[in-house]
Amino acid sequence: MKKRIAILGATGSIGTQALEVVRAHSDLFEVEVLTAQNNASLLIKQALEFLPNAVVIANEQLYSEVKEALSGEDIKVFAGDESVSQIVEMESIDIVLLALVGYSGLKPAINAIKHKKRLALANKETLVVAGEIIVENALANRVQVLPVDSEHSAIFQCLVGEYANPVEKIYLTASGGPFRGKRRDYLSTVKKEEALRHPNWSMGCKITIDSATLVNKGLEVIEARWLFDLQPSQIDVIIHPQSVIHSLVQFCDGSIKAQMGLPDMKLPIHYALNYPDRVKTNFERFNFADYPSLTFEKPDRETFECLDLAYMALNKGGNMPCILNASNEVAVEAFLKDKIGFLQIPELINKCMNTISFVEKPNYETLVETHKETITFAKKILY
Ligand code: NDP
Ligand code: MG
């Protein structure tokens, strides 16, 4: 039986790479659902190739364009944010690949879990905003949440077969981004074009900026806390500019396992979609001679303040990671519009974390409120 997949965010960096995986393994996978926000033309093209049961265009103004283009096919067309969340309920879906960006992934994630759909999760912001709720719901509904983020896929792969063996700590590797080794005076004038030039990975704009500020690694620390049930003190970050060791687990006996491979997101996507099996691929193979030295260094936490802000949010708990995430979303959008400088990103996050009311035990509704309140406050400061 083929696995029937819903790809939420099909037109993005992860979504298109997931479709490459599906294209190469049409004997294993069938596309059931595709969704996009604004990119109607790519969504239409994908739908005509993969012939899903349904597509959703989140931007309602583009509904008629998509509907008309697909009128000759037996494909249901829906529009709007609510439909993106609801579409995961479809009986025929076996696995949901959540590749939306930012907070927009939260509601579909919760809905997918409630409807007992296996979740391949790329959208780390969901775990940052509501990690505890996601984990509780996944346990209650016996749903597996499979990481797609390369570091978390690495940790997950290192843990296979280890059952209850105690983990002492994990090391999340980070490339360091385009500004590794740079200091504040340099960063004060950098523009988005430079920040968008990631040395090793080609990704969507938001995560590329997040990688440049190192907030991405901070978000990943929070993501790891929930995926692997670790204490913040058990999660360390190490800069590894070559990006071939995707992360490491240190066990209670001091032994360390690492997962390696070329920096290619198709690998963790493929692993999550096929889990627990390993299926042969034709992806380019790693050549040791191309990497005569693998290096490691400590992150510069003074210059890249976002990493510590994320640890602070995680240690504080409650709605603080939600505040961190929402303020970062506003800051990144403003930076991409040339409204603020690079160093104002941590500044804005800091201000929001110090201002928005703290809630120790937020439920889903409280987190929705915190998100809204933070967005409004952050925008008021900026605009
Ligand atoms: P992209 O920006 O490339 O793609 C995002 C996708 O989601 C697009 O299909 C976009 O549609 C859609 N989308 C965006 N906003 C909304 C919204 N409000 N409602 C509905 N759909 C929306 O992002 P990436 O693929 O880079 O990243 C996706 C997630 O995966 C992020 O959480 C990121 O942190 C994570 N991730 C990404 C990696 C990568 O290599 N790219 C690596 C590890 C994690 P449209 O195209 O129409 O705008
Ligand atoms: Mg990552």
By CATH, the topology of the largest domain is Rossmann fold
Q: What's the CATH class of the largest domain, please?
A: Alpha Beta
Q: Looking across the biggest beta sheet, what order are the strands in?
A: 4-3-2-1-5-6-7
Number of helices: 16
Helix content: 40-55%
The beta-strand count equals: 11
In short:
By secondary structure, the chain is α/β, with parallel strands linked by helices. The chain is 44% helix and 15% strand.
Walk me through this protein's architecture:
Helices cover 44% and strands 15% of the residues. By secondary structure, the chain is α/β, with parallel strands linked by helices. It has 3 domains: 3-147, Rossmann fold (3-Layer(aba) Sandwich); 152-263 and 298-305, no CATH class; 317-383, Orthogonal Bundle (Rna Polymerase Sigma Factor, Chain: A), CATH 1.10.1740. β2, α2 and β3 form a beta-alpha-beta unit. α10 crosses α14 (320-336) and α11 (215-227) runs parallel beside α13 (306-316). The longest helix is centred in the C-terminal third of the chain and has 19 residues, at 364-382. The structure holds NADPH dihydro-nicotinamide-adenine-dinucleotide phosphate (NDP) and magnesium ion. NADPH dihydro-nicotinamide-adenine-dinucleotide phosphate binds at residues 9-15, 36-39, 58, 84, 99-101, 104, 122-125, 149, 201, 203-204, 206-207, 265. The site of NADPH dihydro-nicotinamide-adenine-dinucleotide phosphate has 28 residues, from α1, α6 and α10.
